[in-house]
Amino acid sequence: MTFFYENRQIVTPGDLLAEGDYLAGENTFKEDSKIYASRLGLVEYIGRKVQVVALNMFYVPLVGDLVIGRVTETNISGWTVDINSAYMANLRASEALNKPFKPQRDDLTSFLDVDDLVLAKVVAYDRTRDPSLTILEPGLGKVTYGQIIKVSPAKIPRIIGRKGSMISILKKETGCSITVGQNGLVLISGRNPEDERLAITAIQKIEQEAHTSGLTDRVTEMIRKERGVVKNEGTNEIG
Amino acid sequence: MKEQTKLVDDNGIRTDGRKLNELRPTKMEVGVLSNADGSAYIEQGKNKILAAVYGPREAHPRHLALPERAILQCRYHMAPFSVDERKSPAPSRREVELSKVIRESLEPAIFLDQFPRTSIDLFIEVLQADGGTRCAGVTVASLALADAGIPMKDLVVACAAGKAGGHLILDLNDIEDKEGEADVPVAYAPNLNAVTLLQMDGILIIEEFRQTIDLALEGCKDLYKLQKEALKAKYVAITEEVEE
User: Fold this and answer.
1) What is the CATH number for B236?
2) Per-residue model confidence as pLDDT tens digits over A15-36
3) Which of A5, A26, A38, A218 is most worth mutating to test chain B (most B CB atoms within 10 A of its CB)?
4) Fewer CB within 10 Å of terminal CB in chain B, N or C?
5) How many domains does chain B fold into?
6) Average pLDDT over residues A227-234
7) What's residue A1's pLDDT?
8) Nearest residue on chain A to B67, judged by CA atoms?
9) B192 in contact with A at a CB cutoff of 8 Å?
10) What is the pLDDT at residue B238?
11) Which fold has domain A66-142?
12) How many interface pairs between A and B have CB atoms less than 8 angstroms apart?
């Protein structure tokens, strides 16, 4: 029963993390009784579990995930959607229309067309089949306003924060509505472009410094400072 | 008769001033390209090599995709200006072969079975060549893979050893490779303790061959430390900046 690193130390693939009766968590693998890292990240020892918080990774779909995707193709009975993962997702017409779908009658392109952005939920995915999506829930559907930025899917938990602490601060301080897709796309819409720009800067800061501690305080401080500057500039112009 | 260059002088010093078991000065950097999912750059002596990783993504052409695992597609390419005399940019026989051996030396270290039906695309671009580019290519490629967040059992590191001027030497450069007696490139995964590439060009007796491999593995272990430092450097720099 031995640990080879301190909590939250950076490890690289192949590093021996622990030996003995432990459970291999995320981004680790077990051989005999030895646990190794499989990704570059920060090691965490939680009780008997050893895991690595990855510093960069790609999106792997999970049932129930909220994602933002781009329609790449219109088919006979649905659409193909790029959800920033290794697999293209399918959105079937029956998962998008509130009425029964008849190919003879309904023109799918009038509902969603190529290059449209959609906010959707993953309803099915396994290793053998491509993920399928639905937009038949309140709040889901075509994205018609706001700005979208792309971040590494590994940083999404940090942007949301523990029990949503970070995201609620972002919303409160910038006054924007922020929708986080688990696939690394974030939709931001605010009352004016200034607010949106501020929210984007803050999210990019979180992405950059995701592996450091005390981030929430620094982000709050940064937003308040920027806001102050913006407000002062505004008053100067009027004066 | 061709005049023989003296590859190792009487004091055991090589043409570029190195000792027999000394690596070339090496610099590695991770995350140098913003459009790739993962990237890395290495300078090993006069070698300058760039690696970029994309994926896992849909395999193209589609028929290459495998139902049970991902495929690794590798392209080793030398820029036309990478050597003294212009090299045609079209892939040569040698480049096709090196693409294959580099791919096969990296495959055992990657968890390919975790994302079936996809492809990981790896591009290795040699900007300047001075011998030992296949080894430097493997070293930089595994850095780019780790940077892309692809799950791996270990980082793969490669280094050549060989014989020139009657001495066993580490990390051959271009002259030593061309005019020396033998060249043995070795790719190694230190934590797995597995050799994933072993080639030999030239003539060695069995005892020399054994010593050469040991020498190459020592070189690999030194480069491995540099690899790990390079991977961490990007993040450690941010942490230090923040804590100031």
Assistant:
1) 3.30.230.70
2) 999 999 999 999 999 998 999 9
3) A38
4) N
5) 1
6) 66
7) 67
8) A128
9) yes
10) 87
11) OB fold (Dihydrolipoamide Acetyltransferase, E2P) (2.40.50)
12) 89
pLDDT tens by residue, A149-190: 999 999 999 999 989 999 999 999 899 999 999 999 999 999
pLDDT higher than 70, residue A74: yes
- CA of B115: which chain A residue's CA is closest? A127
- Which of A152, A151, A145, A206 lies closest to A176, judged by CA? A145
Task: For residue A14, give the nearest of B117, B152, B243 by CB distance.
Answer: B152
Asked if residue B18 belongs to a domain, the reply is no
The answer to the question of residue B19 being in a domain is no
Does B46 map to a domain?
yes
The CATH 3.30.1370.10 portion of chain A extends over 147-237
Domain boundaries A2-54, corresponding CATH code: 2.40.50.100
CA distance B208 to B214: 10
For range B75-102, the mean pLDDT = 97
A14, A58, A212: residue with CB nearest B154 = A14
Q: Which domain holds residue B106?
A: 26-243
Domain with CATH 2.40.50.100 in chain A: 2-54
Which residues of chain A are in CATH 2.40.50.140 domains? 66-142
Give kind and range of the element (H or E) at residue A16: strand A16-19
Assigned domain for B162 exists: yes
Partners of B192 on chain A (C-beta within 8 Å) are: 14
More confident residue, A237 or A67: A67
Residues from chain A contacting residue B155 (CB–CB below 8 Å): 12-14
Answer yes or no: CATH 3.30.1370.10 is held by domain A147-237.
yes
- Residue-level pLDDT at B1: 43
3-state SS of chain B is CCCCCCCECCCCCECCCCCCCCCCCEEEEECCCCCCCEEEEEEECCEEEEEEEEEEEECCCHHHCCCCCCEEEEEEEECCCCCCCCCCCCCCHHHHHHHHHHHHHHHHHECHHHCCCEEEEEEEEEEECCCCHHHHHHHHHHHHHHHCCCCECCCCEEEEEEEECCEEEECCCHHHHHHCCEEEEEEEECCCCEEEEECCEECCCHHHHHHHHHHHHHHHHHHHHHHHHHHHHHHHHHHHHHHC
The residue-averaged pLDDT of A53-81 equals 94
pLDDT in tens, A43-66: 999 989 999 999 999 999 999 999
